[in-house]
């Protein structure tokens, strides 16, 4: 980490560079992916895993006590027959995959932490095909695992047992784009980065951006209510998604694909499906409100001595950068002070530069920040973001990382890091926090040389209990999926969970959609 | 309308005034209410109306064919007994209103268009009291009409028959405010303007603002998914509301009152209640994300010769004003060109002034705008907004106004005005459109000297059919309430409406919450 110091410019020099009369270069916000495209770690052979999903969760070493994250027993869904295959081959000619090698990458999540044993992958191209598939599966009591880019982190996007994988990969058409309103409609399987590239040519951007953009599908983003790097500025998908087309468990097509900013005619049904992780319906098309492409983007990398200074800097920057602030990320390490990455995006390079200059001068004068660097060009912006990303990458060199995605009142997010450090003492190799200060979202990472059940037992449920005491969320943006479904009560009261169960029963009475996910096992 | 010209400054003069080196005064966005506080038209005596809600809707002149907006027959709810009154007086000492004079203002909507005949008004102060009331009403099969500030425009906020009125007026405490994150939590009965005043002292604002702010309650705003003047900038309540506490029909308290920007633990239940018009539960508390108070606010009033120029001006201004654009409203009249009201709000008065100057210069050079005025001071900003509001007020001088709140693709919003004018010909006194261009929201007004059933028959269903052909919404921000419930199929497919019915049946099986509202009569 000390190397970061050597790579930074002196902040005073940066301030000279940022004089009010200099003009920033126009720079698109291009960042390296936090994770490589899925293909970078494929193919994976079964022998690398050698255990089924349930075993992974119960521990391959044969622990008798099953952890709350362990998969429950297989539910009594039907098994696939030759007749089923015949039916699917008739409606999806050439798009019915049964070859185990081809199925491999869809059975395993990209963290390589869970694996299912599905023997059937379907690749529909149209909503009508999805509808036919689900109608058939519902009547036959066959379980289905809807899958987008399979970049999820909680085991929600892969089968647990032999669920049929329903991939949106071939549903990748852009349907319409209105250049006056900025409203895009597209099929669910469009890759986020492809949508971004399409929009940039039209002077717009997607309202969300995340590390997995090169692989993730917009349908999966909506199904998991993905947060990401632009949430601070453009808000959550509950506000930017204007319409959805969804196929319900029985094959019924629910058309809520409005392209209107305002529509108060009855209950806003689409909201139910945002963040439901494919358990209530399969999203087949999305309409979304896109912001104009900023003409000016700047990134600053700063150091603060204490978390209190970091929060004061945040307040200062919200006041002085105001409407151009588009990211305020932090990362900490046991060996250095706190680092802050601030991004601005706006419509006037000169004005943005002046605001940034004034903010940095004030932050230096008030001794809130100690050092840092300012990126005024595209290549330097990329370099700064990749510096932030390298820190997370560096964690993997420690061996094994236990990852948590916690939402807390902003002023409390760092307390969890220090409390966890104290609580674990020597048992962890390192405890590192980073995340989105602006959203109160902490990514907590605990590393050890290898998987360590004793360490895990020291972390959980400590981390969840701590979060619940502060009325935080045990999953800020990753969702619950398979891995965290039984921890839901730490963040939601039992009445709310029971109501979720009623909604699930109403929309998918046979429970064929993404079983074993999102809702806890002890639900009636 | 011609008077507006005389009151405007010449735009060229305004541009001189707006030279890049001048500084705008810091101005809070204070506007006159579009409507006076409720008390301004009260007390109303029964003789002024003399007809019950159903008669009003079927036409007091005894038309035999009931219009789709007419109230259905009273459902078989219980009648209030002395025992019921005794119970309520015990749990709400001194807050059980049965005096007909005191009930009068709660039985009539502020448009004076519908009236109920409730004989009981309850004024709980706490969530626990609301819970006790609903638990009792549910067991006794007594219908309940939840009521906030009673400023709704579609007859959703008053009883239709003898429903018990449950007022949130005494639930007006602010619970918490976090000055770092800007997250406010408060009881549902807080008046919007009071929340705004509270926040302004802390350098924040509410993310919504509307004409009725002096009377409307935040709970009612959320229950009706109110849009208003800041939606273009801060988005809808589906994005800014972070948590809700809701009491369900059976008295169960659903605590989803999170104060987190990110929380992906299960289905986002609170979304169901946003815009459900009190038919699914009674909102008792709200947590909402508030933006920082802008340091600089400017308002421009411009004239455009054609709607095409108005749209081009909108595009230009989105590009050049970018992140500081906070409103783009238009109004038209048969006697003058189009008027545009543009509001900017930002963090740096000098930068905002420069952006505005450059935009106006470009708009003039390109001959997109013909004339206008710029407000750089608080008093002039108020004067400009009230000029916009006076036009709507002026309509009332024509006699009777038929009002529609339509959402359309932006480029189509004016076509409806011209088509309606052509369609109605001499039958209407005037056809006037105004609204929020930025949101694609048209407020269409048709005036006549008096109520005119033949004119109404010419407007409806023409206006709804026209809107449906363009995939618009027949209620952009006002909701459906009593008056528009049966028009829902113009904007929503039957599958979606059926699903809404299932949700209603699940959450309120006895149907005691705000009956006859939102959902159509022909629902199974």
TrEMBL record, chains A, B:
Catalytic activity line of the entry: (R)-malate + A = oxaloacetate + AH2
SUPFAM superfamilies recorded: FAD-binding/transporter-associated domain-like (SSF56176), FAD-linked oxidases, C-terminal domain (SSF55103)
UniProt record similarity statement: Belongs to the FAD-binding oxidoreductase/transferase type 4 family.
Protein name, UniProt field: D-2-hydroxyglutarate dehydrogenase, mitochondrial
Domain of life: Eukaryota
EC assignment: 1.1.99.39
Role: Catalyzes the oxidation of D-2-hydroxyglutarate (D-2-HG) to alpha-ketoglutarate. Also catalyzes the oxidation of other D-2-hydroxyacids, such as D-malate (D-MAL) and D-lactate (D-LAC). Exhibits high activities towards D-2-HG and D-MAL but a very weak activity towards D-LAC.
InterPro entries: FAD-bd_oxidored_4_C, FAD-bd_PCMH, FAD-bd_PCMH-like_sf, FAD-bd_PCMH_sub1, FAD-bd_PCMH_sub2, FAD-linked_Oxase-like_C, FAD-oxidored/transferase_4, Oxid_FAD_bind_N
Molecular functions per Gene Ontology: (R)-2-hydroxyglutarate dehydrogenase activity; FAD binding; metal ion binding
UniProt source species: Collichthys lucidus (Big head croaker)
Keywords: FAD, Flavoprotein, Metal-binding, Mitochondrion, Oxidoreductase, Transit peptide, Zinc
GO cellular component, one term: mitochondrion
Domain FAD-binding PCMH-type, first and last residues per copy: 114-293
Cofactors: FAD
Locations listed in the record: Mitochondrion
BP-aspect Gene Ontology terms: malate metabolic process
């Amino acid at each position: 980490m000390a190397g970061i110091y050597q790579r930074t410019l002196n902040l005073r020099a940066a301030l000279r560079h940022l004089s009010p009369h200099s003009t920033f270069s126009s720079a698109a916000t291009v960042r390296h992916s936090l994770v490589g495209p899925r293909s970078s770690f494929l193919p994976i052979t079964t022998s690398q895993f050698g255990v089924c999903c349930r075993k992974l969760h119960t521990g391959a070493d044969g622990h008798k006590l099953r952890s709350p994250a362990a998969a429950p027993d297989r539910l009594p869904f039907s098994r696939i027959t030759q007749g089923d295959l015949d039916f699917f081959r008739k409606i999806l000619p050439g798009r019915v995959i049964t070859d185990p090698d081809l199925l491999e990458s869809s059975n395993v999540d990209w963290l390589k932490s869970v694996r299912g044993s599905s023997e059937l992958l379907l690749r529909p191209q149209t909503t009508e095909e999805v509808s036919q598939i689900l109608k058939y599966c519902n009547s036959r009591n066959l379980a289905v695992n809807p899958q987008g880019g399979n970049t999820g982190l909680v085991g929600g996007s892969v089968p647990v047992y032999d669920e049929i994988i329903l991939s949106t990969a071939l549903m990748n058409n852009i349907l319409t784009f209105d250049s006056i309103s900025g409203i895009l409609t597209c099929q669910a399987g469009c890759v986020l980065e492809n949508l971004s590239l399409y929009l940039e040519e039209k002077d717009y951007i997607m309202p969300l951006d995340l590390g997995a953009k090169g692989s993730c599908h917009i349908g999966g983003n909506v199904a998991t209510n993905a947060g990401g790097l632009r949430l601070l500025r453009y808000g959550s998908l509950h506000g930017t998604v204007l319409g959805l087309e969804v196929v319900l468990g029985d094959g019924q097509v629910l058309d809520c694909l409005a392209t209107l900013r305002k529509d108060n005619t009855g209950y806003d049904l689409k909201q139910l499906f945002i963040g439901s992780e494919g358990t209530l319906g399969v999203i087949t098309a999305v309409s979304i409100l896109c912001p104009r492409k900023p003409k000016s983007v700047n990134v600053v990398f700063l150091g603060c001595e204490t978390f209190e200074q970091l929060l004061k800097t945040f307040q200062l920057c919200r006041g002085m950068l105001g409407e151009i602030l588009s990211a305020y990320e932090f990362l900490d390490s046991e060996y250095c002070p706190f680092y802050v990455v601030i991004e601005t995006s706006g419509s006037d390079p000169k004005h943005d530069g002046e605001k940034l200059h004034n903010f940095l001068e004030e932050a230096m004068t008030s001794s809130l920040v100690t050092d840092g660097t300012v990126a005024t060009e595209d290549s330097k912006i990329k370099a700064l973001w990749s510096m932030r990303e390298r820190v997370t990458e560096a964690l993997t060199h420690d061996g094994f990382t236990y990852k948590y995605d916690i939402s807390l009142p902003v002023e409390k997010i760092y307390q969890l890091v220090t409390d966890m450090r104290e609580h674990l003492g020597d048992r962890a190799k390192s405890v590192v926090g980073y995340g989105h200060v602006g959203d109160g979202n902490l990514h907590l990472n605990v590393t050890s040389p290898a998987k360590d059940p004793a360490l895990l037992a020291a972390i959980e449920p400590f981390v969840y209990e701590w979060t619940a005491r502060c009325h935080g969320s045990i999953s800020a943006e990753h969702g619950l999926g398979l891995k965290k479904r039984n921890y839901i009560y730490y963040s939601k009261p039992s009445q709310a969970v029971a109501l979720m169960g009623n909604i699930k029963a109403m929309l998918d009475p046979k429970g064929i959609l993404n079983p074993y996910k999102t809702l806890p096992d002890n639900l009636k």
